[in-house]
Amino acid sequence: MLTVKNYYRRKPQPLRDAEASGIPIYVLRSNTQAQMEEALLKLVSGPGLPRENGDRDAGGDPLEETEEAIQSVLDTSQPVDLTPQNSYIRRLQHQLAERYNLGSRSAGREPYRHVRIFKP
Description:
Blueprint: E1 2-4, H1 5-10, H2 13-21, E2 26-28, H3 33-45, H4 62-76, E3 80-81, H5 87-99, E4 103-107, E5 114-118
Parallel strand pairs: 1-2
Antiparallel strand pairs: 3-5, 4-5
Helix pairs in contact: 4-5
C-alpha cells in the first residue's frame, strides 16, 4: 500500500486494516510525481537489481559514484552524467571534481537536476 504522510498520520480504518493484515505500507512525504516515481522504482527494482540508469545503483553512495565518474573521465576523457541529487550533494560533487582539476556543471530541472563531470 502506498500513502502520503498526512493520511498515514490520521490512521484511517483502511490503513489499520492493512497493517493488521501484514500488508506493507509505504509512506510518501508528499503527493508529487518525483516522490511517487522514486517509491515505485524502489519497489520494482528491489535490492540488487539494476536500476533505470544502467549499472549504477541509484540508492548507493553519491560521493562514491562521483569518485567512479571522476576516474572514468580521467581514463577516457568522456563526460559523465551523475544521478540526480539534492543541491547539497551536488555541491559536494562539484568540489570533488574541482579537487581533480576537472570541470563540472549542474544540468536539468528539479528533481532531476544532476552534475556532469568533464575534462576542461
